[in-house]
Design brief:
5 domains; hydrolase; ATP-dependent helicase; alpha/beta; ATP-binding; seven-stranded parallel beta sheet; elongated; 32 strands; six-stranded parallel beta sheet; hydrolase activity; helicase
C-alpha cells in the first residue's frame, strides 16, 4: 500500500491515497501499546504517530499489505524509519548511545535522520516509564547489560522477594533497608535473624528455601542500578542502615524507579499512609437568591477551610506552608508528609476562584476545576479530601436539574387526545422547563415509553402559547416518517403539519406548526433549512448524526432553533462518539472540540476504564439527559404486560410506481374472469402487493444488492433492520415473523452485513432436531434475533427470552398474528413484551388493518382467512387496492 510520510516534531504524519478507510486498521490493528489505535485521531485522512510508534509499526506491515513511499520524500522517510527500527532492535544499542549535558546521541548510523528517530524514540520510551534524562544517564550501564527495552521483573512461582524499609525503634537509631522474602501464599515477610545476617544467602535461608538462593541473589543484583545507597553486590542478604536524608532520597528518587521496573518495596504502614495523606479542604459556595436563568451569571463566593489530622489550619498558615514549599509538616503531636505538588494545585485553585469569578452557570455545567467535582476516592469515606458545600438555594436548583424533580407543572393541552402517564407528564414538564431556561434536551426513554407522545404534548404547549409563531422542525429516519404523520394526526389533530419529503416536495411551508422531514432531505435542503429560525428543532433517532464528519451530521448540527431536542432510545452515555455529536447539536461547543473530548473522556474511559473520567462526564451531561427504563421500579410505570404498537412506513418512489402499475393491470382483468378465476387473481395479487410492500426486489425476484442499497429501496426493511439492531445493541432479544422466505433471507443478509449478527431463520422445511436446537439456543441467549416463518413458528414454540416481537408483514387473520405473538407472551414470560406491527401507509396493508379494527364486532369466522376479501365487489376491491 502506498503511503505519504511527513516528518513532524517528535513523529510523523502518515496517510494513503488508496483505501484510507483501511489505513488505521492496518497500522494499529495489532498494536497493543496504543490500545489498537483507539486514541489515535484521524486529521483529515492523516494519522499522527510518535517516532516510537513509527519504528514499531511501519517496518512491520500485515501479511497481506506492504507499505512503500508514494513519492520520493515519503520513500526516504520510510527508509529512515526502517533503518532506525533495525538499530532499535539491536542488542548492542546502548553501546552506541552517548550523553551530553542535556542531550543524548546515537552513533550507530551516519544518517542524521535515522539517528534522530532513534534518539527521539528513546526519550519517548523513557517518558512512558516516568524516567527523567538523569535517570537514563545513571541507568546506562544497566541498559547495556540487557535492561533495555524496559520490562517488568518476574517473580518466582514459589517465593516473593522484596525490599523492606524498616523504621528505627528509637528516633536516634538508623532506618534499615533490607531484603525480605515470603511464600506466595503467606502475607508475612521473613529475614535472617541477627546472628545469621552476614552468612551467605544459602546458609541463612531456612531448609524449605535452601535451593532458592540464586533467586534472591538475582533480585539483589537487579536492584543495584536503582538504589543509590547500594553500590556493590554481596553474597548475604542486603541489610543497609540509612539516615533520615537517605530515607528521603530513597523515597523521592529510588522508590519510583524500583516500582517502574516491577520491584516490590515494603514500607512501614504508617509511612505509606503518611505518603498518601493529603490536607482536607472545605469550600463553601454561596451567592444571592437564585430565581431564574438570568441568575446563572451570578458570581459564586467561596469560603475556604483547611485541616490536617484533627487540627484546623487558617488560610494564612496554608499560604505560608505553600511559600516555604514544605513536604513534612507537624500538626499537633503528629508528623505528616504532604504532596508538595498537590499543595501547589490547591493554591492555584484558591487563586483561580478569586481571579476568574466562577458563576452559577460554571457550576451547573461542571466547568469548575475537577478538584471540586471529583468523588471521594472511597465511597465509604466520610471525610473526602475536598468537601464542596453549596448554599441551599443553589443546591435546590442543581438538584432540580440533576435529579429531575419539582419542575413547574405544565397542564397538558385539552387538544391532546390522550392521557399522559405520570412519567410522561414529568417529561412534558421537563421539556418546557428546559426551553424556558434555554437548555437543549435529550429525551432518551426506553422504546415503548412514549417519547413521541411526550414531544407532541410539548409541541401543543409551545404552539398554543405562541400562536402564529415560527414552525417546529422534526427530522426523522425515512422509515418512521409515516409514524410521525399518523401519531400527530391521532394525538394532536389541531396542529398544522406539513411534510417536506419526496422528489416533488416544493417550498418549505413556514405557516405550519410542525414541519416533518427526513435526514436525507434535511441534508439535501440544508441551506434552506438553515435560513429558518425554527421554534424548535427535534431529531428523532438522534444517533443518526453520530458520525460527526459526515455531510449529514455537519448540516444538521448547523440548524438554528429556539430549542434543540434529541430523541433516542439508545443509552448515549455509553456511546461516546454519539454523545459528542448529539451534544454538539443541542449545545454547540459544550463538550469542547472532538479532539479535546477524545483526550479528556474517550481515551480515559474506553481505554483505561477511568472511573473518575466517567463520573465527570456523567455529571456534565446529567442536567440535559432524561432517561427512564421499563425496568425502573421507582417510576411505577404500571405498563401493561404487552404493548402492541403499529409502525407506519411510507412507500419509496420505486415501490409506489410498481404498486400503481400492478393495480391497474390487475383491476382491468377482473371484469373478464369467472368467479373462480377472479378469486385466484385476487389472492395472487394480494401476495404480490404484500411482497412489494416489503421490498421491490422480492416482487421483481431480483438478487440482493449490498445491505445499504437494499435499505434505501424500502422504508419498511430499513425500519425493521434498524429497530432489531437497536434491540440487539441493548442486550435484548426479539422475534421477527414473516410470511415470505425471501423476506427472511433478505433480513438475514442485512443483519449479517450491517451488524455482523447471525440470525437463524426457522421455516417449515427445517428438521425437528434443528428446530429444537435453535429454540433452546435462543432461550439460552446465544443469539439476539430469531427469524420465523409465520406458519412454521406461529404455534407450539416457547420463546420467552424475547422481549420484542416484530411482524414484518400483516396476516389477514388477527388470530394467526396473535398466536405468533404468544410465542413470547405466554406463561413463563417474566418481562414486558413489546409488539411492533409494520404497515405501509396508504396501501392495502393499512386499509385492511382499518377494516379488521372495524370488524371486531363480527364473527371470528368472517376474518379467519383472506377469503372474505375475494367476496368484495369490483368497486369495493378497487377502493381497497387503490394507493392513497
Amino acid at each position: 500500500m502506498p503511503l505519504y510520510v511527513e516528518k513532524l516534531d517528535g513523529g510523523f504524519a502518515v496517510s494513503s491515497p488508496e483505501r484510507p478507510d483501511r489505513l488505521k486498521t492496518l497500522l494499529y490493528g495489532k498494536h497493543r501499546d496504543s490500545y489498537f489505535g483507539l486514541p489515535v485521531e484521524d486529521q483529515k485522512g492523516k494519522f499522527v504517530m510518535s517516532c516510537l510508534d513509527a519504528i514499531d509499526l511501519l517496518p512491520n506491515p500485515s501479511n497481506v499489505f506492504e507499505f512503500y513511499g508514494h513519492d520520493p520524500a515519503s520513500a526516504a522517510q520510510l527508509a529512515a524509519i526502517t533503518e532506525a527500527a533495525s538499530i532499535w532492535n539491536r542488542t548492542d544499542l546502548w553501546e552506541h548511545v552517548e550523553f551530553d549535558v542535556n542531550s543524548l546521541f546515537v552513533t550507530a548510523s551516519q544518517d542524521e535522520a535515522v539517528t534522530s528517530i532513534v534518539e527521539t524514540a528513546i526519550l519517548q520510551k523513557a517518558r512512558q516509564a516516568a524516567f527523567s534524562y538523569d535517570d537514563l544517564v545513571s541507568l546506562q550501564d544497566y541498559f547495556k547489560n540487557g535492561g533495555w527495552p524496559i520490562h517488568k521483573v518476574k517473580q518466582h512461582p514459589d517465593i516473593h522477594v522484596a525490599l523492606r524499609l524498616m523504621e528505627p525503634e528509637d528516633p536516634s537509631d538508623d532506618w534499615i533497608l533490607e531484603t525480605v522474602v515470603r511464600g506466595v501464599r503467606s502475607s508475612s515477610y521473613w529475614t535472617p535473624a541477627a546472628k545469621k545476617r552476614f552468612l551467605s544467602i544459602e546458609e541463612a535461608l531456612p531448609p524449605k528455601w535452601a535451593d532458592l538462593g540464586d533467586v534472591i541473589r538475582n533480585f539483589q543484583r537487579g536492584i543495584i542500578p536503582f538504589v543509590s545507597v547500594v553500590d556493590e553486590e554481596t553474597d548475604s542478604f542486603y541489610y543497609v542502615p540509612l539516615d533520615d536524608q537517605q530515607v528521603r532520597d530513597f523515597l523521592r528518587h529510588d522508590l519510583a524507579k524500583l516500582q517502574a521496573f516491577g520491584y516490590d518495596v515494603v514500607l512501614p504502614a504508617w509511612l505509606k499512609e503518611i505518603k498518601e495523606t493529603k490536607m482536607q479542604v472545605r469550600a463553601s459556595a454561596s451567592t444571592g437568591r437564585y430565581k431564574s436563568a438570568a441568575g446563572l451569571e451570578q458570581i459564586i463566593q467561596f469560603n475556604w477551610n483547611f485541616s490536617l489530622g484533627d487540627q484546623e489550619i487558617s488560610e494564612e498558615q496554608f499560604r505560608q506552608m505553600v511559600e516555604e514549599n514544605r513536604s513534612f509538616i507537624r500538626s499537633g503531636d503528629q508528623w505528616f508528609q504532604i504532596d508538595a505538588q498537590w499543595i501547589q494545585e490547591i493554591r492555584k485553585l484558591l487563586d483561580r476562584s478569586e481571579e476568574e469569578e466562577w458563576t452559577v452557570r460554571d457550576l451547573l455545567f461542571q466547568e469548575l476545576p475537577e478538584e471540586l467535582t471529583l468523588p471521594a476516592e472511597d465511597e465509604d469515606d466520610d471525610d473526602p479530601l475536598i468537601q464542596f458545600q453549596l448554599h441551599q438555594s443553589l443546591e435546590s436548583y442543581l438538584t432540580q436539574l440533576q435529579e429531575k424533580k419539582a419542575f413547574p407543572e405544565v397542564p397538558p393541552s385539552p387538544r391532546l387526545l390522550t392521557e399522559l402517564r405520570p412519567y410522561q407528564q414529568l417529561g412534558l414538564n421537563w421539556l418546557a422547563f428546559m426551553r424556558n431556561e434555554s437548555f437543549g434536551a435529550i429525551l432518551a426513554d426506553d422504546m415503548g415509553l412514549g417519547k413521541t407522545v411526550q414531544l407532541i404534548a410539548y409541541l401543543l404547549h409551545v404552539h398554543e402559547q405562541q400562536p402564529g409563531g415560527k414552525p417546529s422542525l422534526i427530522i426523522c429516519p425515512t422509515s418512521v416518517l409515516g409514524n410521525w404523520q399518523k401519531e400527530l394526526q391521532k394525538f394532536a389533530p389541531s396542529l398544522r403539519v406539513s411534510t417536506h419529503y419526496g422528489s416533488n416536495r416544493g417550498e418549505i411551508t413556514t405557516d405550519a406548526d410542525v414541519v416533518l422531514t427526513t435526514y436525507g432531505i434535511a441534508t439535501q435542503d440544508a441551506e434552506t433549512l438553515q435560513q429558518i429560525a425554527w421554534s424548535s428543532v427535534t431529531l428523532d433517532e438522534a444517533q443518526n448524526i453520530k458520525n460527526m464528519q459526515t455531510k449529514q451530521s455537519r448540516a444538521i448540527r448547523k440548524l438554528r432553533g429556539v430549542h434543540h431536542i434529541a430523541l433516542t432510545g439508545t443509552p448515549v452515555e455509553n456511546r461516546l462518539s454519539e454523545l459528542w455529536a448529539i451534544f454538539d447539536f443541542i449545545h454547540k461547543g459544550y463538550l469542547g472540540s472532538y479532539k479535546s473530548f477524545q483526550e479528556t473522556y474517550m481515551a480515559p474511559i474506553e481505554r483505561d476504564e477511568d472511573e473518575q473520567a466517567k463520573h465527570r462526564l456523567r455529571m456534565k451531561i446529567q442536567p440535559f439527559l432524561l432517561r427512564r427504563t421499563k425496568r425502573d421500579p421507582d417510576l411505577q410505570l404500571n405498563l401493561p404486560e404487552k404493548l402492541e404498537q403499529k409502525e407506519y412506513c411510507a412507500l419509496t418512489t420505486e415501490q409506489a410506481a410498481l404498486y400503481e402499475s400492478l393495480i391497474q393491470e390487475s383491476v382491468s382483468q377482473l371484469g373478464n374472469l369467472s368467479g373462480f378465476q377472479r378469486k385466484g387473481l385476487v389472492l395472487k395479487m394480494l401476495s404480490k402487493l404484500k411482497q412489494l410492500c416489503n421490498h421491490p426486489a422480492l416482487y421483481l425476484k431480483e438478487p440482493f444488492d449490498d445491505a445499504e442499497t437494499m435499505l434505501e429501496r424500502s422504508a419498511k426493511l430499513a425500519g425493521i433492520v434498524s429497530l432489531a439492531g437497536e434491540i440487539a445493541a441493548r442486550g435484548e432479544q426479539c422475534l421477527i415473523f414473516t410470511q415470505y422466505i425471501g423476506m427472511g433471507h433478505l433480513l438475514q443478509h442485512c443483519f449479517s452485513e450491517l451488524y455482523d449478527i447471525d440470525s437463524p431463520f426457522l421455516t417449515g422445511s427445517m428438521p425437528k432436531g434443528q428446530r429444537d436446537h435453535l429454540v433452546a439456543s435462543f432461550q439460552a441467549g446465544e443469539f439476539p434475533i430469531f427469524l420465523l416463518s409465520l406458519k412454521a413458528g406461529g404455534t407450539g414454540l416457547n420463546l420467552t427470552a424475547a422481549t420484542h416481537v416484530l411482524h414484518a408483514d400483516r396476516w389477514w387473520n388477527p388470530a394467526v398474528e396473535n398466536q405468533a405473538t404468544d410465542r413470547a407472551y405466554r406463561i413463563g414470560q417474566q418481562q414486558f413484551v413489546h409488539v411492533h406491527k409494520f404497515l405501509t401507509i396508504g396501501t392495502i396493508e393499512e386499509k385492511i388493518d382499518t377494516l379488521l379494527e372495524q370488524k371486531q364486532s363480527l364473527s371470528d369466522e368472517l376474518i379467519h382467512s383472506s377469503q372474505w376479501i375475494t367476496e368484495l365487489s369490483d368497486d369495493e376491491l378497487t377502493d381497497l387496492l387503490t394507493l392513497s
